[in-house]
Amino acid sequence: MTIEPLNLVRIRRQFHESPELALKEFQTHALLLSVIRSLPQNLLEIKTIPELPTALLVRVAGSHPHRTIGYRADIDALPVNEKTGLDFASKTPGIMHACGHDIHMTVALGILEYFANHQPQDNLIFFFQPAEESHSGSVRAFNANIFTNQFRPDEFYGLHSTPTLPAGVIGCRMGTLFAGTTEVNLKLTGKGGHAAYPQDANDMVVAQAYLITQLQTIVARNVNPIEGGVLTLGKVSAGNVRNVIADQAVIEGTIRGLTQKMILLIQQRVQQICEGTAQAFNCQVEVKMNQGGYLPVENDPTLTHELIQFMQSDSAIKFKKTPPAMTGEDFGFLLSKFPGTMFWLGVGATSSLHSATFNPDERAIQLGIDAVVKFLQNRMSKGA
């Protein structure tokens, strides 16, 4: 029986045409299964997860395994209305693969195809993960105990598309690649009243303005200037009528930090300043922070050093050391449980990630596959 090579560009475009949001990736899951089942099956074991029905695990049996190596690809899309004008643009209004997850899946399938036809020395686990953009898919997967027995990796790898690098260029760094994130939701409650009688009310617009100003001092005066930290308050609301004093106000924002220690420091100061505001303005300040937000993507020092050395040593691979990014990535949780590394794959697009016109260069697919296959082969050549 002859197995035809995968038409990777066609597969990527199928994913792109049919994007699905977090935890709803059923069509994506079906296409993944269809492609994987078209490969030689003698080395493969496929595992579905009832608790997380759109997730998928595939194990490739090694010939003389010293370890089990995990590779993760995220599969969900974003609530973005595509404006690329491509022939294979999203057919689902308001949903788009605007973060390159269609590229991620296709690269993973290409790597899987190679090792399904060329038995690896070590065992390989491919994790096609739902809900990276929201709903913490990695946390759900780990809590469902899917990484057990023969499906437990000793180390984990994954890549992320970036339009800031030319197509096929690999980027990485020692330490943190992506920042950790925490969602912040604040609600102030006081006493409303007529605009003409402020003495009889407790104005939450004033309290809100004060609180916003004080919160902005955290990064300016509590964070070490040579370390990374962000507190952005992107949404505020209060009041309904110009001549009524508002009894409630809402602030929504996000915390970003390059280490979990920094995130916890900012969280602590937010809590303290909110408590002080409540006392100063004789009001209630309800603080909700998503403690299970994205952890920083902190690359394992030993494994990352090895990956960077290999990528730099291969003349066929273009590599660049990159700075950390303040964007978040769900892979950080997996790296808190397993040693591993995340790296960039340049896709040379002209628009930024999460934009309606994001259009990655498809030449990056094969270049990414080639680089990762060679790295994994080199990694497997080393003893335990």
Structure class: alpha/beta
DSSP strand count:
16
* Largest sheet, strands/sense/barrel: 8 strands, mixed
Low-confidence stretches: none
CA-atom Rg in angstroms: 24 Å
Instruction: Please work out how many helical segments DSSP would assign.
Output: 10
Strand order of the largest sheet: 1-2-4-3-5-16-6-15
User: Overall pLDDT, averaged?
Assistant: 96
Shape: elongated
Q: Ends: how far apart?
A: 36 Å
Helix content: 25-40%
Hey, roughly how much beta strand do the residues contain? Answer: 15-25%
Helix and strand sequence? HHEEEHEHEEEEEHHEEEHEEHEHEH
Give an account of the 3D structure.
By secondary structure, the protein is α/β, with parallel strands linked by helices. It is 32% helix and 23% strand. The longest helix has 21 residues, at 260-280. The chain is elongated and about 80 Å long. The mean pLDDT is 96.
